[in-house]
What we know:
- By secondary structure, the protein is mostly helical.
- It contains eight helices and no strands.
- It starts with 10 loop residues before the first helix and ends in a 37-residue tail after the last helix.
Amino acid sequence: MFVPTEEMAGADWRAINAATAVLAAVGITLAMAFSRPWGNKLPAWLVALPVWVGTGLLVPMLLLAPVLGPAAMNKDKEAGAPDFWIYEQILVMISLVGAGIGLPLALLGYAKARWPEALGGPLDCGEPHGSSRALQATVAKLLAVGCVLLGVVKIYWAVGGTLGIDPDRLDGRDVWWHLLTLSTGVWALAGAWGLVVLTTCRGSRRFLPPMGAAWISSGMLFAYSVYNLLTLTDMQQPAPEEPIVAATTRELGAVLGVLMGIVILMVLHDRRRAMGVDAPAPVTGDPAAGRVDAGRTGADPQGAGVPPTGGFGREAGSTGGSRPHDSGVDSSVG
């Protein structure tokens, strides 16, 4: 109702606004889940999936917002957009910055209580029986090659390379496109490093830096591939790349992001087992029966053998995380 232009009454505009409203509702629900007791009882995937996409979309954007905000306003002004829409970009950027800062911080606090093994501690905490580390390392190296190739191509375009760019659309390479392309390339390289370090346990002493790089990179590659589908509609100007090149890089980014996310889950699964978070309680009453090598498994050094609740992947988490005397579970943020 009362839209200022005929274009904004079109089906594509209504669809994108409906999608924005749904995303806002998801963000509000996540904020409540992170801060209320019932949030610990949600299935792990219901929390991890939207946060994975959200951090991948917002954290890279957060770093570019001071430049992208004014660039978006100038772009709309040159296109003849209504004044109210141009200044609404300020509110859009403020909301992106707020969510880009608040969502990761809230996730850190939530994960510290529910999945402490996903944040703190040393990189190598041992290899549990039946570990798939060899498979993880092989797949990670293959994915790293794909990330490096994609990153090099994106950075080449961002610095002015024209191979693979449609000669008739060279003017479409504005500041917005250059910065997003550069950001994608840099995060692809960061993700390649993080994934290889996580699976080989070499290159970092702490677990959090490579985990953060791989998490944000994988979510970014997937989220921005979906975002770039807007170039196929009237909502965004056509991509300056050749159509087949644009489709190839877009689909490659989506596939790499999803596969990287799967490897991250495999790493967390083995890490949880190595730290003894899911260790069963002893069958007998002998205190020695509950003792395992605390330095290797992270089990209770007092021999209680009772694991903390709220594990990754369970549908009912705990509000407390690990006990203070769990030597193998570093519940600090990093």
